[in-house]
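User: Haloacid dehalogenase-like hydrolase, Celeribacter baekdonensis:
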Amino acid sequence: MGDFEQKKIALVYDFDGTLSPEPMQHYGVLSELGVEASDFWNDVKEKKSKERAEELLVYMKEMIDLAEERNVSLDKKAFANHGAKIKLFEGVETWFPRINKYIRDRAPDIEVEHYIISAGLKEMIVGCSIAKYFKEIYACEFRYNEQDKPVWPARIISDTSKTQYLFRINKGVLDVNDSINSHMPREERRIPFDDMLYFGDGDTDVPSMAVMMQSEGHSIAVHKPGGCPRKCIALKKAKRIDFFAAADYRDGSELDVLVKATLDVIVDRILLRDRISQLRV
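Assistant: Predicted structure for Haloacid dehalogenase-like hydrolase:
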């Protein structure tokens, strides 16, 4: 009898624009720093271009400098408090337990795990209301001094480096201090790519979407409800995604129906693999 262990499904989410309508820095942090969001990002882009720098490093350092200059506390607690103010798309608050129950009712032996891979700030995401649902949150982080003040970026998650974390989930090497470069046969990987779904909203998600599609996984693009889906249409034409829908996570929405249909396919595939493995001598 076989002993089939790959009975997990991973749902992996970008954050800004995917679960939340605006960049998370807009929910209190920039206003506390005394700067308008448009002015902040324009300044970041100008410095990025002038200094040929990585935009994520520029914006994180800019936040540190503004906090120091204006004597604003941006310790971990402050970031978490701002994270609690993040607005989410409709239905997101109840999405995770609903999806978990949907799979549990269909196949009790199959477990669903949710992950974040975001260029946003981990310190804010851990403070938001849905943080408890994620097995891991991979996002940009600061280094802190002994006074708990941010002094430098400790980790950045760029559009291309996001793919590293897909492989971490795939291989089950979740600790960022552990290498993922060693070869691992497909049958030994904790969650095969075809049992993974990636949710994103735009250009910064393209490398991750490409990896998912090339690896027989599933990619989904969302757009603001009532907004123009032009970018999503382009992603579909480029074969970066399976489908797209408005970022309405409520029960019965188009996104909800399409994701559950995809999960049905994955569950049936897992059950079939399990059955076949048990027939092997």
